[in-house]
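Can you give me the bound-state structure? Components:
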Amino acid sequence: MTPNESPPRRQTMRLVIVAVIAAGATVLVLLLNRNVMTRKAEALQTSFKVVELDEKTVDPAQWGKNFPRQYDGYLRTADKYSTKYGGAGSDGMPKSRLEEDPRLVAIFDGYAFAIDFNQRQGHAHMLGDQRTTRRVTERPQTGACLHCHASNTVAYRDLGLHNGAPGSLTDAFASDTAQAQLMAGFEVSCMMPYDEATKLVDHPVACIDCHDPQNMSLRVTKPGFLRGIQALAKSGEPLPHLPSIEHWRRSDRSKPYDANRDASRQELRSMVCGQCHVEYYCGAKATLFFPWDKGLKVEQIEQYYDEYKFPNGTPFTDWTHARTGAPVLKAQHPEFELWSQGIHARSGVSCADCHMPYRREGAIKISDHHVRSPLLDVARSCQTCHRFPEAELHARVATIQDRTKALMDRAEDALVQLIGDLESAKKNGAGAAALQPAQALQKKAQWRVDFVNAENSMGFHAPQEAARILGEAIDYARQGQLALRNGK
Amino acid sequence: MPTHPPLRRAAIAASIAIGSFAGAGTYTFINAEGLSYLSDDPAGCVNCHIMREQYDGWRHGSHHAVATCNDCHLPHDTHLHMLLVKASNGYHHSYAFTFQDFPEPIRIQPGNSQVLEANCRRCHEIAIGEITAHGTLGVPSDPVQQTDLFGCVRCHQSSGHGPTR
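Here's the bound-state model for the whole set.
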């Protein structure tokens, strides 16, 4: 190395290093630019119109082509999971609630629920589970059961058309002809034997049951709900959590309340669930109906049933208890009703806010269509509003549910003891007149215990209301025992 | 221009590389709407859509007429402090959004919480000075500080971002 060669060479090396670093930095900047472009593209296009959807598209897989993110979540409702008080368990075997709680066999004696009653599974299982339950395979049931266990928006309209309803399947859902088709098909299906009616449907609840195929806006399509919410609107019951009904009541009422026309999007985020997660009559003696004419509270529904007469003139009952001879009621799954009495409803929190919380994928935000217990996603469900650690929120829910369970255990014990007392009184030759007051009290106690037991939140949807109902149940059961003693 | 041939070639290469970097950098900066982050406009804060809910809430909240994002979320004691906090938040937000590795729901950090609290008091001092004089505010509701809502916003939760639902 000569002295006059050294500086240029060193300078050359420096410049080469600068060039290499600058080139590397350029690559990184361009990678960042690509990332920015990706995020921008995600935000621009939230849906992809791959197939045309219309009022005849039932198959969720077709909708899934345009809305793959929502469809992925929808498919995952097949997943098995369990929480402390709900779910079918991760082993994939349905858990029998009759084995978990043998008192239910006494409580439901004489009814199909005493032979087969399992823990609930996700939406994907609703149709298959119904077709295979011994309540359906061993007891005659009607097509009414499918109102809530299948996607039947199109099936009802098609059946309606075959039974003389006007128009065609392409009519807009809101049109008078489409509504006539829907109601006609619904009425006919409720009177069909289950085996025959179930051949008309292929899918569990599907996109079209809650969404308008043209613009994806929310809508309600189940006839029972459409009629039930109309009847509820006409009642005098205050409904602060459903402001559109209060608003309709103040209007001229020239047209009946229509959830699809009057309800806000936030209300519909609960109403779409309320199409099925409710109390209803779905037996063979009348067309399926929601008992909401007097309001949504347990005693208002009871009063409606007490005054209701079947078309054949007989008083309303779900079944006659095998051990006591009492005509009794079976609650279905009154989530919408119990939620309506709770603080979350009162605060404007919808079903979907907790059961379908928003999730983010890149720059896109979607509501999670993997509908499930909020306890499995506390961060997205609860922490959006309640800014406390997950463990704290889990503990709060557990406190509510454990207390409800403890009270429900006492109520079930009281009811089973009343059933036992009635059974012995009958064996000892008590007459119908002597038994009647206690039987009436069994019906009241049974209805209240079942209202909380059949409801899917172990009291969480309205803790104080659940406790009130169970307190009344215990009181009615003990009053029944006293009535038998005093009647002697 | 250096007369030494290898030195000249290296100088050209370095110039091209630095020029490319400057060009690509400027292009990316413009593409990412970098200038908007230097403004006071809340619309810039929802460029990435993550805080869309907070932005929409603010537009419905009582403060939208009197305070922007920067008014509440950046310190206003010195200009340097403001720039430092803005740079620190900008870095963390860009990093999180680029690598998508942040937990949801997003939560305010303790340092930013203090900035926020100071800003409530900056505007409302006359009204609340008597209340805060004895240091009754600013105490975390949770001793391990996992609860991020403390001070004024623990109760006045909806004043900034509107009703939660």
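A couple of observations. Chain B has a mean pLDDT of 82. The radius of gyration of chain B is 22 Å.
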